[in-house]
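Structure ticket #2291
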Amino acid sequence: MNFDFTKTFDVAVIGGGIGGCAAALQSARCGRKTVLIEKQCVLGGLATSGLVYIYLPLCDGNGRQVTFGIAEELLHNSMTLGPGKIPGNWKNEQNAVEPKRFRCTFSPASFMLSLEKLLVEAGVEIWYDTRVCDTTLDHGKVTAVTVVNESGFGRISSACFIDASGSCSVAHRAGLPCIEENNYMTIWAMEYAQGARRDWQDNLDCYNITMNSFDGESRLRLTAERREQLYPGVSDEELLRRTVSRGSSGRIVSEFVLESHRILCERYKNADRETLFPVKIPGMPQFRKIRCIEGEYVLKTGDEKIRFSDSCGLLGDWRKPGHVWEVPYRTLYPKNGICGLLCAGRCSSAREDAWEVTRVIPSAAMTGQICGLAAHLALETGREIPELDTALLQSRLAAQGFVFHE
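Resolution: structure written out below.
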């Protein structure tokens, strides 16, 4: 293939969501020449253009902070250009529900801008409107990606790649084994709703609908009334086809977005135009789980009780106070000795209940920072990603406030 341009970096981060931003920020702060490749023209991914505006807790629900570093920095950053508040009494709560924990809500647009400012100041080279369309795997190592943007097709070479795409696009295009689980139709949109008193200001509200349940793979959280409104006369089989997907493809993405738009139209079609109308709809498909890497270790249901020697940080379970998960370094890179690639956020290796914990903002920020630091240390020590001295990584993370075990 003839390329219109070629570039080389120390570290290349794919995906400008929270995980990618944290990874690029850490890498650049270590002095590495870092590029962040993002297919949209804003940062923050599902948190911002996806309108999922809740920065979930960094604590265990019993007054103890468990996640630190850039994850905490970005929580505060999310409120620098817009509204937001951390519950003042979170340290004294016991068995607290999620809204009373160390968390906040934020304005998506404000966070987009403050994230970008933070990365630019750190020296990250941001490539907007650029999509990865192929991966080069040479003798068991990821060595380059092919991208496309308004300049044409380009080849980006790097000593280390960090896949924070949300869909494991680098690993998937390299033919590496990935894990897929069901995605359920979930929609968040911002609306003007007269009389509403919510997180930002009076009358500005968030409408959301989630057609899933955490206690069963095939159960849909859809009342009989709502089903009759949205899917009159539709069979159970057709309902599942239209609201549940697995993996991703051009067809799946288009059908998911079209169906979510149809549902929103149903909400507003008979509304009083002066008192209820949409203000902002998502700029990206609101998939929660698409693909993640099949890592050297796969975090799974029940692992919140396990102590890992290569733990790189802790995550509180946003759904269950008191449940804390350790994240092993082995979940951040592919199995079988594949080199040159780390995976952050919902691309890190997890399945089942564990994926519900690793797919959200705190995990994305924390694992992104770990990946950014691991990439730097691999270059500094001349080791491949799977061979990196975990004790060295832990010591550098500890210097930034990280805790590894309960």
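Closing remark: The CA atoms of residues 172 and 178 lie 7 Å apart.
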